[in-house]
Amino acid sequence: MSPVLGRGGESAVGTRGTEESKTTYREAMREAMREALRSDDRVFLMGEDVGRYGGCFGVSFGLLEEFGPERVRDTPLSESAFVGAGIGAALAGMRPIVEIMTVNFSLLAMDQILNNAATLLHMSGGQLPVPIVIRMTTGAGRQLAAQHSHSLEGWYAHIPGIRVLAPATIEDARHMLAPALADPDPVLIFEHGSLYGLTGELRPPTGPVDLDHAAIRRPGTDISLITYGGSLPKALAAADQLAAEGVDAEVIDLRTLRPLDDAAIAASVARTHRAVVIDEGWRTGSLAAEVCARIAERSFYELDAPVERVCSAEVPIPYARRLEEAALPQSAGIVAAAHRAVD
After folding, report:
1. What is the arrangement of strands in the sheet containing 163-165, beginning at the earlier edge strand?
2. Of 117, 235, 305, 327, which residue has the fewest beta carbons closer than 10 angstroms?
3. Spatial distance between the Cα atoms of 173 and 25, rounded to a whole number of angstroms
4. pTM, to two decimals
């Protein structure tokens, strides 16, 4: 019997009951939602095309058939309405997972996220927690043009009252959702669209997932490459190239964009004394700018060279493939920035 394939082309069978399984980022996120729906009757999924269609990016494929329309709810094309409904459900004791198709469309729900989800606990004197998880696809590299391709997670990382996650690995895609649902505050999860097809071995968790700390994805001594999300594979590729050229680069995956792990950033800079910050957002007012400012505040006297930044070009993301590639951070640009700092 041939395996059942999901909309993304991978096996629709989950990873339960295996010590180590080969899977994709997409399937890891799906399995995280399946586990949440099975383990807690308060959890439900809602969003555009999450049910019958299986999700615009295939993440929720098969969940409607397994859990039914009460637990996997297709919504009208109104981000403000269904995010607001999710906030109301959270206030009433439910644990909603709200999927927004792309980060660009989340701007239609910005009022709900900023003025309601992020502020009600504070404005009510601690009486009204909003335990909602909002998932959305972010980033470019897939020729979806300017209205579907920007990286705006840095905007949300500016807002007090919410937690902002950017899982860049299969393990984080699989295991970040459960603690996010347990958080009494709103949690936004940004899934880079280029990662959905990422394939790898999923190891069983060794303990509770830590949402407060960055991760060292590659140790090094000569320079710190600090990044998150869809730019992590590019940073790791750049580190490989730098190693071949005699430069030992450390790669830091921020993982959580709010709150930032200042201690991990400072410790890495103390080891390497140089840094490149890679961020697919635009350079002006970027998350990279915030990281650079914190390095200057905490680690200025550790630096042997100015901090470098590699960000997207200050243009709407183009549709044409070569123009899109030219507009985005790439490994070659990261390598060049590292050499400017080291040489």
Report:
1. 72-74, 43-47, 95-102, 133-138, 187-192, 163-165, 256-258
2. 305
3. 6
4. 0.92
